[in-house]
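Morning!

This is the sequence you dropped in the shared folder:
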Amino acid sequence: MGQTISIGSSGLQCIGAYVARPQGTPKGGLVIAQEIFGVNAHIRGVADRFATHGYVAIAPAFFDRVERDVELDYDEAGFRRGRELIAEVGLSAAVEDVASAAEAIASAGPIGCVGYCWGGTVAFLAATRLGLPAVSYYGMRNVQYFDETPRAPLMFHFGERDASIPPQMVQRHRDELPGAEVYTYPAGHGFNRDVGADYEPASAALALQRTLAFFARHLAPA
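The structure's back. Tokens below.
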């Protein structure tokens, strides 16, 4: 369904991006912010799924700033390298790439952002810095940026058994971002990732349903 294109990044550098397009007229566009494992088969599948629901979906390869075509395994070595790469790239650069990706699919109509894990915080910052309606899945770094004011609607999804995001951290989202929608699920971290032990199909399906309803509301043409 999708194809890889090049989009602009900082300076003269270009990065790759996976784009999936729907059949017929799109409802809008979505920038997909990756986990720490790169734009791998799972993230491409996420983009494809949103395309089947009528959106032009683009997943910019943030790691191309450092190393091209990164696709890491979900093992100790993959986690370690992924953490190294997000430290090298940084969240601010990733948000710049979200802006570039949004521009690349501007013809789709209104644009939103949805991100997962590290990308969940990228999505949160897309709402505060770029004004994009955004859905953040289990972004454990969100609270570090609560001094930033959202400029667009926000939705958050968390697993109730996520040891990296305890209940008090989830509650801070409710307390400090009262305008946001915050949902929890009987699941662990990464419950939307349909590979590995953390996948929880019922929770993933409900979160997707809520996410699609969110974008149907907030990306409706003016």
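Headline: The helical segments are 41-52, 76-89, 91-104, 118-129, 167-176, 201-218.

More detail when I'm at my desk.
O.
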